[in-house]
Design brief:
Number of strands: 16
Shape: globular
Strand order of the largest sheet: 1-2-3-4-5-6-7-8-9-10-11-12-13-14-15-16
Structural class: alpha/beta
Strand content: 15-25%
Pfam family, one: F-box-like
Oligomer: single chain
Helix content: 25-40%
């Protein structure tokens, strides 16, 4: 049934805007030619402030007509540099890929123009060429001078080189504004150093991936730092007294003898302010020293989320013994399917606040049906009526699965859910909660 256009135009502006909000950017530009009223409404700021545009043809029209854009992704800086020359469009999020010197020169034009309009509050920069390239250094100057930038993502794969010669960092007068910094690099470079020093008063979240030498002295000077992701290192002990730091993600890294860094263990043992800790890939460490240190820390009484816990065979008893020390723990993430000794340690008495137990399986042949019907799994759900099991990696069940439960046609809708419990879904349950404990089919 086709709708009469005249009936649509009888709607008030607010209602019509709500209808137009369901259209894609290309459809909005098409609708604006239908009449004068739609011409104006289809360019309303509300409709474009979250728009994501990457197609060059559509981007040309949007930059010429739209008042703002939510996100622009640039893989061809040369083509986009010409499009932004005369624009008045404010772009909130910008993503740019730089492969060579020419890319860097055009990217500088894009960043400079769009930031001058008051946009580029979030920037993703993918640098695939050396930082010592003069045009790259000019681009980094433009980036560091963006006024009011809030989030910055940098992925660097090229060599650093003699960057100081082309980027006179000390000559720049910069104002702190950055709240979130994600930096992917194998070594500290002058640009990262400048970012951390400049934005130390405002940075709240710092993610340093692949970086083995962590600039802990600079991190320790950040009064608002709440979230940190990095490799463990001895220098982490310098951050133990940082009162604002609440969430830490420690990514896999071990010493030559296979032990967890002593400084990282000391950091966990002394910290009193942590609320969330993730051990990402630390099962290769071969030691439970990190979890034991956390259980003995002043933070243990306040932590509400722990993930990446090692349940390797030799550590089961000690892991189970540490759990009761986390009385306010709501989320527990295990790095593999837990054995019975760990499941038995989970009860309303030991972990009274636990509501989600996340399990990650790397066994591609493991069937979710069979695992959920294991007596130990059924038992932990029945004993913990408020608990939800969350599977992270077992949702795909092959059509030819040979387990008995699949052959019997066990609840075929199971694979459409991610949270499993012993109760029917309640108002406070996750949306994808499904009752499995005690069911026979």
């Amino acid at each position: 049934m086709e709708m009469d256009e005249s009936q649509l135009l009888l709607l008030p502006d607010e209602v019509l805007l709500a209808v137009l909000a369901h259209l894609e950017p290309r459809q909005l530009l098409q609708c604006r030619v239908l009449c004068r009223r739609l011409r104006d409404l289809c360019l309303h700021r509300r409709l474009w402030q979250t728009a994501d545009v990457s197609d060059l043809f559509l981007l040309r029209a949007a930059l010429n007509l739209a008042p703002c854009l939510g996100e622009v992704r640039v893989t061809n800086p040369e083509a986009v540099a010409y499009l932004v020359q005369g624009t008045a469009c404010v772009v909130n999020e910008l993503s740019v890929q730089v492969c060579d010197q020419l890319n860097a020169a055009f990217a500088t034009t894009i960043v400079g123009k769009l930031s001058a309009l008051g946009g580029v509050k979030e920037l993703s920069l993918h640098l695939l060429c050396p930082l010592s390239t003069p045009s790259v250094a000019t681009l980094l100057k433009a980036v560091i001078n963006i006024d009011g930038i809030k989030e910055l993502f940098v992925r660097r794969t090229g060599a650093v080189g003699p960057m100081e010669a082309v980027l006179p960092l000390s000559d720049l007068e910069l104002r702190p504004s950055l709240r979130k910094l994600t930096y992917l690099s194998c070594e500290v470079d002058p640009f990262l150093d400048l970012l951390l020093k400049t934005h130390a008063p405002t940075l709240e979240e710092v993610f340093l991936f692949f970086l083995h030498e962590i600039p802990t002295t600079l991190l320790g000077s950040m009064p608002r730092l709440r979230v940190l992701a990095c490799h463990p290192c001895d220098g982490l002990s310098e951050l133990a007294d940082l009162p604002s730091l609440e969430s830490v993600r420690l990514m896999s890294r071990v010493t030559e003898d296979g032990a967890f860094f002593a400084g990282a263990v000391d950091f966990l043992r002394r910290s009193s302010h942590l609320r969330s800790v993730e051990f990402n890939g630390t099962r290769d460490v071969g030691s439970d020293a990190h979890l034991v240190a956390l259980a003995d820390s002043p933070s243990a009484l306040h932590i509400n989320a722990i993930s990446g816990v090692d349940v390797a065979q030799g550590l089961l008893e000690r892991v189970a013994a540490t759990l009761p020390k986390f009385s306010l723990l709501k989320y527990l993430g295990l790095d593999s399917v837990p054995p019975n000794v760990v499941l038995k340690a989970i009860s309303p008495e030991t972990l009274p606040s636990l509501s989600v137990l996340s399990v990650r399986s790397t066994d591609r042949g493991m069937c979710l049906h069979a695992w959920l019907h294991d007596p130990a799994v059924q038992d932990v759900l029945v004993r913990n009526p408020n608990l939800h099991l969350y599977e992270a990696g077992m949702s795909t069940i092959p059509d030819d699965c040979a387990c008995a439960w699949c052959r019997w046609g066990c609840h075929g809708t199971l694979q459409h859910y991610k949270y499993y419990s012993s109760h029917a879904r309640r108002a406070d349950c996750p949306e994808e909660c499904y009752q499995v404990a005690g069911c026979s089919s």
